[in-house]
Amino acid sequence: MLDIRKSVYIDNRWVGPHGLGVYCAAVQNRLCLKELDISGRPSSPWDPLRLMASMARLPKASVVFSPGYNAPLSMIRPFVFTLHDLNHIDVPANGSVLKRLYYRFVIKRACLTANRVLTGSEFSRRRIMSWSGVAADKIVKMGYGVDPVYQPNGPSYEAGHPYLLVVGSSRKPHKNDVRIVSAFSRAGIDTSVKLLFTGDPTKELEEVARRCGVEGRIRFLGRVKAEELPPLYRGALALLFPSLYEGFGLPIVESMACGTPVLTSACTGTEEVAADAAVTVDPYSIEKIAEGIERITEDSNLRDELRQKGLERAAIYNWDSVAETIRLVLEETLLESGAK
After folding, report:
1. What is the rounded radius of gyration, in angstroms, for the C-alpha atoms of the chain?
2. What is the pLDDT of residues 200-231, one digit of tens each?
3. Which of 58, 112, 199, 266 could crosslink 169 through cysteines, CB 3.0-4.6 Å?
């Protein structure tokens, strides 16, 4: 077995308080790779040139690994990167002319010329393969994991009332917050049940809540620290995550690992991740989301069933396993490149 720590360099700039950052930190904590000497934002339009220059300074028998969707203009050294999904091109509201050009001329080319492309779900693997034209064996599903802090035992958030939880601070349209609020207002559930959002509201969301007559039953918690999330999950009746598009959907398995039932979408990566351990709905239908909210809120037997299934489902998502898959990919890349 090769010691990849001698020759593999990681672009560690992706670490941060978001899903991609959690993935980057979890993998690096386990693999302990050398950090690439590079600064600036990896999402910058100038980064392909900056990354290429940084790679050129490395010893020839080196491999560069990026946990995110950045790539060099030219593959000066063997390169492995992670393309978590195609959100920026599949969801028009999350894209822009610049992002579409970046994906077309940098990311698609990188898919073709990199040694391996990692992604988190079979949905994303097939979508990337279809979009880029890359051979199936070049795109590796590494999956995701759940930190041990997400477990059913521990303190629960005391809200003073029963609540449903929505996790996400971006308020991007594909998170479906407007339909969630509309569906919550239509659901035939006890009015003591409130809807809690992590993050801050938008003016549109506040207006929808007023128009639906539920502004008094909705709370926005602002920025929530990582250590505050497990108690929030444990205290909730259920997590509502009917996103329109996800390559994976980490809050699904975090909630399941805490023993909290989940309502999510019957499409994209969320359906694959949740399997039969969640209530799945058509995320474009306010009526179907409302029906799902009624089921998961009013049926305690269903919640008990989902709690057990969710704990079993979450147990298969393990960061050690993810890191081992990536280690093997990096080891293969070193061998292919001639490093010993």
Report:
1. 21
2. 999 999 999 999 999 999 999 999 998 999 99
3. 199
